[in-house]
Amino acid sequence: MKTCPHCGTRWEDDCCFCQRCGAPLPPPPPPYGAAPVPPPRPVYPGAPSSSTYLVFSILATLLGCFFCFPFGLIGIGGIVYASQIEGALGRGDLAGAHTAANRSLIFTVLAAASPLIALLFGLLAGFGSIFGWLFW
Ligand SMILES: [Zn+2]
Question: Where do transmembrane segments lie in this chain (predicted)?
Fold first, then answer.
């Protein structure tokens, strides 16, 4: 049944116009058992994009593991936090999403920096051996 928004008379669902006052009737409700239309996810301005953080953290982890195996695994922390961004946004927790994004970024930077750190240690070790060779 539909109720005329203008005069309040009730009509069958297949009526498009009120036959008493001529006002258009609202569209019929979805049939019982039909899949409810999911509410559109709200768009948060300035919300961190989980996919961007995810891609960068995965790349940093691969890079870190390739050049500096055990230390590069720290990038997994970035992946974990990046995957939490989506969940936080789903709960409407914009602050939580930003926190997860920042933590993801820290791990991503650490993982991406691990080859540089390895390079630095390599250079130091190299210099050490050169000096050791010179002064030995
Ligand atoms: Zn009416």
Answer: 53-83, 104-135
Contact in structure between 111 and 74 (CB atoms under 8 Å)? yes
Cα of 31 vs centre of ligand 1, distance in Å, is: 23
In the structure, ligand 1 is a single-atom ion and the residues with CB under 5 Å from it are 4, 6-7, 9, 18, 20-21, 23
Mean pLDDT score across all residues of the chain: 82
Task: Quickly state the pLDDT bin for 41 (edges 50, 70, 90).
Answer: low
pLDDT at 135: 63
Residue 39, class by beta-carbon neighbours within 10 Å (0-12 exposed, 13-18 middle, 19+ buried)?
Answer: exposed
Contact in structure between 64 and 73 (CB atoms under 8 Å): yes
pLDDT at 32: 66
